[in-house]
Amino acid sequence: MFSKILIANRGEIALRVIRACRELGIQTVAVHSTADTDAMHVRMADESICIGPPSGTLSYLNIPNIISACEITGAEAVHPGYGFLSENASFVQVLEDHDIKFIGPTAEHIRIMGDKITAKDTMKNLGVPCVPGSDGGVPTIEEAFKVSDEMGFPVIVKATAGGGGRGMKLAKTRDDLEAAFFGARAESKAAFGNDEVYIEKYLTLPRHIEVQVFGDGKGRAVHLGERDCSLQRRHQKVFEEAPGPGIDRETRDRIGKVCADAVADINYAGAGTIEFLFERGEFFFIEMNTRLQVEHPVTEAIFGVDLVKQQICVAAGEEMTFRQEELSIKGHAIEVRINAETLPNFTPCPGKISTFHAPGGLGVRMDSALYDGYTIPPYYDSLIAKLIVTGNTREATLARLRRALSELIVDGVDTTLPLFGALLDEPDIQSGNYDIHWLENWLEAQASG
């Protein structure tokens, strides 16, 4: 087992990793920018080291500085959390070159899944069902029209190197395609330095279902059920739950086995998430995230598995402590992502927290790096907290979420907390009858009065 791990991240996910390390008896190193000197992850780690100015590019994405921090502190391994360098194959390779262990999959697997076309081809060859689309990248508008006419509209143009909803443009009709094609290319070039795009059939009323997988890197893998992440705004998840409403055990076991077998076949190591669009009982692969997800706590809640501890143990060469037949779902869990944003436009709202009070009680978990007097810096993502609740049934979980939201206090900045209270009053949310377009349609209706 490792004796010291450096966490190449910040905020609540850095705290999450620190807690797992502490329970395993592992020393931790927090890295931070000058803007995060007083951050909670810096306070809680055994050691801390500044790696640059506020800009993420110059600090949390600064690979030479992170390598130097490992060498200065003697850290043997790096946990990347999510975001920043968590899916950067070059970072993994540099760590390997310096004999530092990356707590995650290999650079090769990150590269394969980081390119949407390669990922789709790989999954198709492994027997995972995929969304109908172009065979590889689409280099010209003429080819885009040919591909789209063959599969039929609507279609969606996607960046091969995309993520976070960037580089994605919808063409509902043939007249929309040219703007979508060049818009996706321009956005992808600006965001990822790569303007290659591909085209997929646009499903009209799908749900966003993702399957949690975990492999030991030696040909054994399991699945830990699915999460429904359909409530999204601008392709950003807002509300996640597990298990997914309307997914029966037979369907879960079927797609879960397909996913576990696929990652086992490629000797995948650690946690990963295979994301699907789900419509009329069919699954269509869209991408694989080769890292821990923001919404991993809902899976932990219903399976009783600490995914971060398992990541660390597998990276250290130890065996997975569970087998598929030992995994069973207990109850239901929901997570809501709370952002420092001003409604209704979701404008970032950094500033000083005057009062923070986390809810408590049975079945309530709060993942946050907030504290009274903390100043949220304006340089990073606006996610400030994740509220996770668990109950024996979905109905009990929704009731617990309502109660926990009523206890939560975040004063000093605007937050998205009022959104969740309003959502819980909606019959579609109460029944679980929603798809990936539901939230944006609802927000538009609220804005129009």
Please give a structural write-up.
It is a single chain. With 449 residues, the protein is α+β, with helices and mostly antiparallel strands. It has three domains: 4-103, 3-Layer(aba) Sandwich (Rossmann fold), CATH 3.40.50.20; 132-201, 2-Layer Sandwich (Dna Ligase, domain 1), CATH 3.30.1490.20; 207-447, D-amino Acid Aminotransferase, Chain A, domain 1 (2-Layer Sandwich). The protein has 15 helices and 22 strands. Helix 4 (89-97) packs antiparallel against helix 5 (107-114). The termini are far apart. The mean pLDDT is 95.
When the domains are counted, the total is: 3
Radius of gyration: 21 Å
Strands ordered across the widest β-sheet? 13-12-9-10-11-14-21-19
The averaged pLDDT comes out at 95
| CATH superfamily annotation of the largest domain | ATP-grasp fold, B domain
- Give the helix tally: 15
Overall spatial form: globular
Distance between the first and last residues' Cα: 58 Å
Secondary structural class? alpha+beta
Sheet-strand content, in percent, reads: 25-35%
Quick structural overview:
The chain is α+β, with helices and mostly antiparallel strands and 449 residues long. The chain contains 15 helices and 22 strands. Helix 4 (89-97) packs antiparallel against helix 5.
Q: Which features characterize this protein?
A:
about 450 residues; alpha+beta; Rossmann fold; Dna Ligase, domain 1; D-amino Acid Aminotransferase, Chain A, domain 1; 3 domains; eight-stranded antiparallel sheet; five-stranded parallel sheet; globular
